[in-house]
Structure formats: C-alpha cells, structure tokens
C-alpha cells in the first residue's frame, strides 16, 4: 500500500528558504510522491511565493497541485 500524505505535516526547516528548498524537503519526507510534489505551487500564509520567504512557528505553508479546467 502506498504511503499516504497527511493533510498536515511538520518539518524542521531553516528560518529562511525558497520554493525549491521547501519542495525538496517535502519530497524527501514523501519520496513516493516526489514528481507530484515538485510540480506544486507554494503558498505561504495564503500568498503564492517563488523566491525566498521566512518561516516562523505559526507560518502556514500550502502545496497547491497542478489543476486544469475547462
């Protein structure tokens, strides 16, 4: 059975990081989903990010998977 991704996880992260570093850390925690994780958008406290951002104990980080619509 495949490892399930929890709706909420906790990772030890540096206080400043960027999208690529965050996605790499999550992909390391869930290697079966690496390709899916690496294609996600990242939102920090409900704002999309690309470059460096700061993480505190109360920071909410969301991974947004690719979607399509019509």
Could you describe the 3D structure shown?
The protein has one domain. It has two helices and five strands; from the N terminus they run βααββββ. The protein has helices at residues 19-29, 34-38; strands at residues 16-17, 41-44, 47-49, 53-54, 61-64. The longest helix is centred in the middle third of the chain and has 11 residues, at 19-29. It starts with 15 loop residues before the first strand and ends in a 6-residue tail after the last strand. InterPro entries: Beta-grasp_dom_sf (IPR012675), Mopterin_synth/thiamin_S_b (IPR016155), ThiS/MoaD-like (IPR003749).
Structure in a nutshell:
With 70 residues, the protein is α+β, with helices and mostly antiparallel strands. It has 2 helices and 5 strands. It comes from Enterococcus canis.
Q: Report the average pLDDT across residues.
A: 87
- The gross shape turns out to be globular
Gyration radius (Cα, Å) is 12 Å
Structural class: alpha+beta
Proportion in β-strands: 15-25%
Spatial gap, N to C terminus: 33 Å
> How many discrete domains?
1
Number of strands: 5
Which sequence of SSEs, written as H and E, runs from N to C?
EHHEEEE
Unreliable stretches: none
Our count of helices gives 2
Q: Tell me about the largest β-sheet.
A: 3 strands, antiparallel
Q: Give the neighbour order of strands across the main sheet.
A: 3-2-5
What is the helical fraction, as a range of percent?
Answer: 10-25%
Protein name: Molybdopterin synthase sulfur carrier subunit
Organism: Enterococcus canis
Pfam families: ThiS
